[in-house]
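README: folding subset

This subset contains proteins for which both the sequence and a predicted structure token string are available. Records are stored as plain text. Below is the entry for TetR family transcriptional regulator (203 residues), shown exactly as it appears on disk.
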Amino acid sequence: MPTQHRAIQSRQALLRSAAEAFTEKGVPASGMVDISRRARLSKGALYFHFASKEDLTFAVREEALGALRILEDELARAPHPAPTAVRDFAVGLLGRVDTDVVVRAGLQLRPETAPGIAEPELQQRWFALFLEKITADRAAGKLPPGDDPRRSARLLTALVVGLLHLGQEDRTWWEKDVVTDLWAQLLPSGADTVPGPVPEPAH
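--- output ---
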């Protein structure tokens, strides 16, 4: 096996091992020796790739955010109208979080347990992304004129962020059937429209 390919495999194994340790024991209780043993690599191999546990922690976070950026780029380029595109984004995101321990651990890192780690501000990023998609789709005639795009973007952001949060306690919330069923209930006309204003109650 070429040296470069072996080095890439070793690095990925260390990221997975660190992520497993972080999710099981937390960052403070996860030692470098334990992480290297989980990866079946020497401590020297670990320090060849990562100078410290802080470097390894940042690498886990960056690996997770890199996976998210790919999904976000796919959403921005999606030909489907925003509600459908965001549903597909949610399915892809939550499925990846459920099956990829590096992504799951990276999104769970917090400053109080991993000093130097900043909150990823996913809500703000996704709100801006969804708003841009809704606005572009309406300008292109893919969505009918209707409610304030910011309101629609807030709804879609709340759905994605809420499911991400709920699944941390019960991972059935991340299942594809659960996500698509929720979208069908909230957007019963088929996910290509966004709910309009809520009517005022009759007096």
